[in-house]
Amino acid sequence: MSRYWFHSLTLVLAYVVTGYVGLLIPAFGTSITLIWLPTGIAVAFLYQGGFRYWPAVSIGAVCVNLANGVVWPAAAAIAIGNTLGPLLTAWLLRRLEFQPRLERIRDIILLAVTAHAGMLISASNGVAVLAFFDRLEEGLVRAWLSWWAGDSMGVIAAAPFLLVAGRTQLETIQRRLGEFLLWLMLTMLVTFGIFVLNGSQEGAAWAIAFVPFPLIAWATMRFGATGTSAAVILIALVAAYGTSVKSGPFYRVDPMQQVLLLWVYMTTMATLGWLIAVLGFSQFKAIDIQRNLEHGLRNANLGFLLADGNGLITYVNDCFTRLTGYTTADLLGRECRILQGSGTDAETVDQIRMALSSGGHFDGEILNYRKDGSAFWNALVISPIYGDDGKLEGFLVTQRDITAKKKSEIALQRSESRLRTILELEPECVKIVSRDGCLIEMNRAGLEMIEADSIDQVRGVAIDELIVDEYRASFNMMHERVLAGDHGHCEFPIIGLHGTHRWLESNSVPYRDFDGAIIGQLAVTRDTTNHKLAMKALQESRDQIDRILNSIEVVVYSASPAGDEILFISDYAETLYGSPAREFRDDPTKWFSVIHPDDREYVEKAFAAMEVTGSFNLEYRIIRADGSVRWLLNRSRMILDSDGVRLRLDGVVSDVTDRKSAELELRASEVRYRQLFKANPHPMWVYDLESLRFL
């Protein structure tokens, strides 16, 4: 069963049971009673649970009226008023910000006023229905007043019991169950004696009706709000019952007078009872507050001191005596400056005096001294205390020992000072950048790089505003990586505050707070402008050399000492070898694969001899990509460092095919002449005109 249906069933049952009890003490006929508790139950349920419980109220009202012999159309019509009246009361209580704990006089008045206002609907509707169905046994006005008073009294008596009843209240009664039963028995005896067994209605007999008021006070003081509610309900029921059986001080022959007297009594009794409860609640709350305050001050970790308007100590808590080493007797009646000593800052003392003389507050730190003469740092807060007339009555002083914190701060300041000195001497830029990319701190070297005079000039400036536009994206990507916990490296050009362009190289790590959370980046940045210019000049020089080497009709190359890596080869290689130069760079073995098979062994031996000779000067043949054979002259030399370690092999290859062909042709011609001379029987000679001799 859901909570809603359980509460709805509970409401129906409570409505029917209390309605049956109410019908036992009718005022007029069988339908109009002197106190109707179901209205109070309905108001409490609708206020606390919400207006969704109205069907349960209607069902309960129909059931009670049917049980009372009312025909079902009349029962349903009466139920409409019995539902709308509590609904209006609950709505008014919510609109007027009623507080159900009933600890304020305002809430008691609100409950009484809204109860009487809401029951105007139920009384008017009920009397009209009874008159329509010809069930009204008295005059219209008398019946209406009786119905209205009975329903209103039902709200005032029953609603508070359900509104204030809670676990704490019930536990209070349970702890004092014996006393509660005694109170209940005594209250029953007194009320029955006054309202049921008392048959006198003459003179001032009604005065004894106020005898139960001490019982209400007893219930309030000992059992809380629940006790007050129980007392009001019990006394109201017994008074109504006694009046209905023609007994007690409120019975009158005139029914109208009887209803009026009983209504006045019940309203007065309930209102005074709840006023007593409010006063008791206020007193209890004040006592609890005072008790809790004293307990809190006594056990607080702060030293508390109260002083009068002249600055004389009137109260100290235990923590204050532990903090200062003085006893309470040592301090009471003494001036607050008893804790000051030779090391106490005079300027701070003057600030305290100025603040107190002007009626203001002081919140600061001061060096004080204990009874044994030891010094301690004290976080001091002094607040003035004013009376209701606005006159200064004294001061509240709180003290907290912050010696350890102060020592840590001093040590931290010294450490920061040393670190600042080191950073200022650091030739590289050291900077701290916030999560949003703004500059927080920067040393002198960094300020010079960006052409700033002081950190205040650039603190809070976004770093990427100084970076050349096309490099901002890469810097911001690096910044995001650092914020994610990675290290970062970035090189970028900046424009200083005076327009100077510089190249910077930055290495960054996450910058964390004391809890380890990343709050920015810590970067070391160096100026690479000169390096960039040197590298640019070197590259331009290399480009110029490459252009020169590529323009001459020889192949210039540089290889690793083992010849397994081509470091450089000029573009003329494509003309000489018939293959692109990149093929030799990509595959160093191609260098040997193009050598003529008849010369390959000769070249390999010469290359191996480089270990000893350090150079070679070789002529050998190659087979070009088109199949033609060319003669090459390869001059190479091994380059060594200062320790004799081989660095690289540099060389030049030139095409000597034409010369080699001429030499071979000349050599072949000489062979032919010699064969001719040998074959001729006649003497022959050859005279060289240059050397002027016979060959």
What does this protein structure show overall?
The protein has 24 helices and 19 strands. Helix 1 (3-23) runs parallel beside helix 3. It is an alpha+beta fold. The strands form five sheets. The protein has a five-stranded antiparallel β-sheet, with helices on both faces. The chain has a five-stranded antiparallel β-sheet with strand order 9-8-12-11-10, sandwiched between helices. Strand 13 (555-559) and strand 14 form a beta hairpin. The mean pLDDT is 80. The termini are far apart.
How is this structure best summarized?
The protein is α+β, with helices and mostly antiparallel strands.
Gap between N and C termini, in Å?
139 Å
- State which percent range the strand residues make up: 15-25%
**Main sheet?**
5 strands, antiparallel
Helical percent range? 40-55%
Work out the radius of gyration: 56 Å
Strand numbers in spatial order across the main sheet: 4-3-7-6-5
Classify the oligomer: single chain
Q: In DSSP terms, counting alpha (H) and pi (I) runs of 4 or more, how many helices?
A: 24
Structural class category: alpha+beta
The rough form would be described as: elongated
| Overall average pLDDT | 80
Beta strands, count: 19
- Poorly predicted runs are none
